[in-house]
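As practice, study what follows.
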Amino acid sequence: MKNYFESFVDEYADEIVSIQPEFYKNAGNHINKALSSLGKKGTVLDIGNGGVINYDFSHLNKLVCADLSVSPKAQKRYEKFENIKFCEANMLDLSQFEDNIFDAVIIQTVIHHLAGKTMRQTEENVSIGLKECFRILKMGGALLIVESTVSRWFEIFEKMCYPLMQLFFYLIRFDTVYQYSAQSLLKKIHKMSFEVEDEKEIELDKYIWLCRKKILTKLTPCKAHWIVIRK
C-alpha cells in the first residue's frame, strides 16, 4: 500500500517550502550552525527528508537523504552533487545502517508523522524512532530535530479525542498525525535519558501548510521547535 506522501512526492518540497519560506530558512540557519564544525569527513543522515534541503551541505563528505519514498525530481535536482545520496528508509527501522556511523542525523517535521492507531502506539513509535537515530550516531554526534509542535491545551484535546481525530484524518485521506507540545516532547526526550544540548522555539511564517492547504498560522495552535541531542 502506498504511503500518504508517495502520491505527491515530487510536489511536496516545492509546495511546503513555498508556503513556509521563512520557517525553512530559520530552521536551515539552526542546522547550518550545528553542522558548521563538520568538514570533508562529516557524514550526515537526513531522515524523512521529502526532498527539502534547506541547509549548506557543500562542506560535507556525505549527505544521505532518506524517506519512505524518494522523489525523482529531488534526485534530478541534486544529481550533480557527488556528496548526496538518496535512499528509501523508515525512521522506525534503520537496520540498513550500522551503529555509530553518522556525525549528525537531521529530523525535520517528522515526529508528528509517527502516529499509530492508538496513543500508546504513537508514544512507542517516537521512542523507537529516536532510539534508532541515536544508535546510528557516532559518539559525540548530534541528533538535530526541527519539529512541528502545538500549544499544551491543544495536545490535551488531541489525547482526549485521539480515536476521533485519527478517524477524521482517515476520512479526508490525510496522513495520520499527532503533534506534541514542546514541553511534553522535551519531557519524553529527558525520560529517555538523552542529553539535550540546545532547544528553542523557531519562528513560523504568516501561513502554514496544513492538509496541503495554505492556512493562516494565527488560526491554528501550531508552533515549531529546535532541539539538539548529543550522544
Notes: Residues 40 and 61 are 4 Å apart (CA to CA). Helices lie at 9-19, 21-35, 72-77, 119-135, 152-160, 162-171, 182-191.
